UniProtKB/TrEMBL annotation:
Stated name of the protein: Predicted dehydrogenase
Membrane-spanning segments: none
Gene3D superfamilies: Dihydrodipicolinate Reductase, domain 2, NAD(P)-binding Rossmann-like Domain
The species this protein was found in: Pseudonocardia oroxyli
Protein family (similarity comment): Belongs to the Gfo/Idh/MocA family.
Residue ranges annotated for the GFO/IDH/MocA-like oxidoreductase domain, each copy included: 130-243
Gene Ontology molecular-function annotations: nucleotide binding; oxidoreductase activity
Domain Gfo/Idh/MocA-like oxidoreductase N-terminal intervals: 3-119
Keywords for the protein's UniProt record, in alphabetical order: Oxidoreductase
Coiled coil: none
InterPro entries linked: Gfo/Idh/MocA-like_OxRdtase_N, Gfo/Idh/MocA_domain, GFO_IDH_MocA-like_dom, NAD(P)-bd_dom_sf
Source taxonomy: Bacteria, Bacillati, Actinomycetota, Actinomycetes, Pseudonocardiales
Amino acid sequence: MTVRWGVVGPGRIARNVAADFVHVPDAELTAVASRSKERAQAFAAEFGITSVHDYRTILEDPDVDVLYLATPHPQHRAMALAAIRAGKHLLVEKAFTVTPEATREIAAAAAEHGVFVMEAMWTRFQPAIVRLRELVADGAIGEVSAVQADLGAKQNAAPEDRFFNPALGGGALFDLTVYPISFAQMILGTPASVHAHGLVEGVDVEESVLLGYPGGRSATLFTSLRCQSPGMARVVGTDGWIEVPPRFHHPSRLVVTRHGAGTEELSLPPVGAGYSHELAEVTSCILAGRVESRVMPLADTVAVQDIMAAVADQLGLQVQEGPADLEH
């Protein structure tokens, strides 16, 4: 059986994801939808897609099983809810939404209608990160005490660009900070406290986040739209540490240091550009009849959205969630 995919929002990230379908068994990209017919047609021609739609008609296409949703963050809510009601499975680009309330709304709708929904946090499916989680679980570095991560991506875009538009979910939080927060949540779970400090100029352009956990454990995170930083992560334990070299959100290797046992470098490159692994996860889950991923469950997405909401509140951000109705 082949799982038939449709893309909603044929922008830059969708183009990168679409190119990785050649590496995914049992998956076929068959449809695309956009508010712009010309944009959808150009995307279809580039990737050999046969069906071109608007947002409404792709929901009515019987030859589409699952949608990859890559519109701006505040627009995820309406399309996701409409797709779920139409019985379509979903891969929703990170950040899943811009408020925890909308994330919980989508998760509840998915449970009610029995469809598969997952956040497109590709980091968790990279071979290097899969191995990191195995090493931590096996006690390779003892008990984890701390997570450290940075992700600075200097943007020279014009002020009207999406990155700096609050109505389109602009700012560091939903494009960058979601990565180290999700990484920390993956390793340490849901924090007991969140402390944020940053710079807001219309949108948040830079922030530092300290997550506190029981037993003195912590995660120290930094992201920026005005500074380029290495993009490195480190997991520190009582018996050693694991470094995830730049860029940690799509790494190709790990460096493992064990106390008294030296350092080992592990080469674990992704297949294709690295999106193939999350596409394979969704495809296999749908074929198996599962409605959630065990690697990226919706409970983790909700937890990450709660942390981001706390950061937004402490920075004084005015987050603009999109409507629940596709017609708006």
